[in-house]
Amino acid sequence: MNTEPWRVRFTREDELVEQLQSQLLEAAVRRASALAAGVAELGSVYAVAKATGKSWTAIDNAIKKHTTK
Fold this sequence. Notes:
Blueprint lengths: L5 H37 L2 H8 L3 H11 L3
């Protein structure tokens, strides 16, 4: 077996984790923007929650955490 040294494997995986975290944050911001647009269209966080099947607190928290007003 030709196993790479643990430091090489760790560095590669650590870089992947950083990339994935960055992509996750970008997706969360886009999702929050879409939810905010849903609130503008439907008139309330509750209406968006009902339409998406999520709790209103999850919708509200996502919008507050990932959008700027």
